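Supplementary Note 3. Input sequence used for the single-chain structure prediction.
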Amino acid sequence: MDKAVLSSAGICSTMAALFSVDADIVALPAGAHNLSAQTSYIYGRKKMPYVITTLCTREGDCVEVCPVDCIVPAAKDDAEWGKYFYIDPDTCIDCGACVPVCPPEAIFAEEDLPAEYEADTEMNAKYFSEGPGYWDFDLEEQRRPR
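The predicted structure, written as discrete structure tokens, is reproduced below.
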């Protein structure tokens, strides 16, 4: 089955008309000319299917169940990023396998994210766009001692 390809202009004008909002609110990032029907954008940035919040205690169970290996722990000794695990929004397939295995219940679908953790959305996305991103790690060394 072929994926539907939608133009960014068509998406923006349709959404603006349907929801009676300013077209700037639904504007897509530069370079997003054609999108598959599975790609979602919110306020000009790619939607995070799931967000690991600051509730993360580095258990690592989420890494073990992820079918596409999109969850990465920051190196424990990294002063800026090292407290948490992060989900790559470009690789995540929105399967939700990570949510029920997270002992501290630190993972939320973006649309279900409690307001007090909204900043964690950008933190997750920035880990891959501006931070270290993917690296060759030993999960047992990076998870919290059991």
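Helices lie at 8-19, 61-65, 98-101, 119-129, 139-142. Residues 1-16, 21-44 have pLDDT under 50 and may be disordered.
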